[in-house]
Amino acid sequence: MTSNIESVVTENRIFPPSEAVMKSATISGRAAYDALCAEADRDYSGYWARLAREHLSWKQPFTVSLDESKAPFYQWFSDGKLNVSYNCLDRNVEAGLGDKVAIIFEADGGDVTKVTYRELLGRVAKFANALKAQGVKKSDRVLIYMPMSIEGVVAMQACARIGAIHSVVFGGFSAKSLQERIQDAGASYVITADEQCRGGKNIPLKPAVDEGIALGGCESIRSVIVYQRTGGACTMVPGRDHWWHDLTASQPDICEPEWVEAEHPLFLLYTSGSTGKPKGVQHSSGGYLLHAILTMKWTFDIKPNDVFWCTADIGWVTGHTYITYGPLACGATEIVFEGVPSFPDAGRFWKTIQKHRVSIFYTAPTAIRSLIKSGENSPKTHPRNYDLTSLRLLGSVGEPINPEAWMWYYNNVGGARCPIMDTFWQTETGGHMITPLPGVTPLVPGSCTLPFPGIQAAIVDETGNDVEWGKGGFLVVKKPWPSMIRTIYGDPERFVKSYFPADFSGQLYLAGDGAMRDAKTGYFTIMGRIDDVLNVSGHRMGTMEIESALVANPMVAEAAVVGRPDDMTGEAICAFVVLKQARPTDVEATRIANELRNWVAKEIGPIAKPKDIRFGENLPKTRSGKIMRRLLRSLAKNETITQDVSTLENPGILDQLKQNA
Ligand code: PRX
What we know:
The protein is of the alpha/beta class. It has 20 helices and 30 strands. Helix 3 crosses helix 4.
């Protein structure tokens, strides 16, 4: 992402908050922001305790705010009890919002279904009762492999209601990925659908669950619940598989919530790390929900009349926090969108905003970049052709947004009126960490600006000491915060090693990103991952995971994967492969490369398919046999090689590795 850093560093356009936004914003003006930060500095745990009392409904109030006795396994509000689903649904109905629309479901084909808070509560209660009748108990792990749907949200909320721990797997992951996640989480139930609808096509979902379980080691599974989305062909295993509609038909629409400790795990969400195996990031109930609510209120400035739309999938953390939990906990009306931005044409997002009078729109830079391109190629789908005057706030998430894309988003979608919240955060952080606030922060394209009030973000060198503003370093968080990851499920040692490494005194949370602060403003710019994790279209992919998938193919002797900058997807996956057979001819190479791409799609999922595949007789290695990854990164970018290559046994392989198959 070097080009982005350079352009941000020289970026001097500044967009201060408008009078109108400042007037209406919940946190308005720098003084209000500074006052919150000062309160957190004065009494850190008292600050979060105040917010947790004001924004959450507790069954049993807590007396302890931050408990550091088992650091870095920090605990928040641990002697308090609450229920997340109660906080999202019942309390809104009790506050008189029963008839307010909670979810507007926009189906792939354009059909619309609306549910009110009262209806949603009833549906969640019914499904929660069905889960209980199936034997689901508090702390059981329930794997959810669902399309974007009201039922997807209901499934997650129903788990929260009975204290079961959900683990949502994105619908684009393979049967093998499902099997690994079922095994790692020891999941006893799977909730899925017959098919999903995307871009006008019905794509089977249930077969991946069957195949995943058939791969073995999934004896923990007791039942599979299938939501009928399309009514397409679907094989049901007698005794194990049940239709959602059959299980819920006779269930009452009232279900007493299970009051759980604030630290009770709400969910696991698997994400890539720098080793081959994805990590089951474990989140809490109380602290997580607090941050979901605060960021909805402060970053998105959510108001009773807003229509909020986060375009993420519920399979990613953004969908968890800003679809399933945050908007509902704030009593907001939100869109749940099943389709893709390009169907029936690239005007779909703008048409949907116009149709539902969306006021807050939250999406990813990759989507914006692809829509810029489509708008150029087919002017009919350009945002200027739609009435987007309902918008008042925009958001960006998942990857750095290049200033050009930022300006296009600002001018063409936001009509130069709507501030853009460039929110930096991670699966592990639960919610926004560094972000502008609409009534406070002058915006600079490409910068996520300043920490959310109370978050102690900083940049340090390899010894853990602060670096000066204007210098790059490791992004860290100096104090625990309520919505932070609690552990890696089943692997507490890996949790400590990954996030609180001894080189940084074991006290600092290491985000895994490089960053720098502007010398004058102190604004943060994210420079990208410092570990072997790639960010492709805002999706995190471990290079080791893709390498393991490639070498599992019988044709492959050795493989190394690196990222290279890509105009559309931010980063692209580039694989260097040594086959067991002789290096293929050009014709053979194309065929084998496609075979390997499909293999990776089957092993991990289509999102992990390498864009470039290059074949060599060997990989460039140091004398001690280590793969020279820096050299591979240069080759991937088609840069002239400036590194010392005198140690290479066979410099000829560099020429081989320059050619894309
Ligand atoms: O590298 C950062 C990038 O995405 C990573 C987190 O990925 P994930 O856990 O999948 O969560 C994505 C959605 C929150 C980070 O380590 N990232 C996320 N947001 C931004 C970003 N990079 C730059 N700017 C952002 N706003």
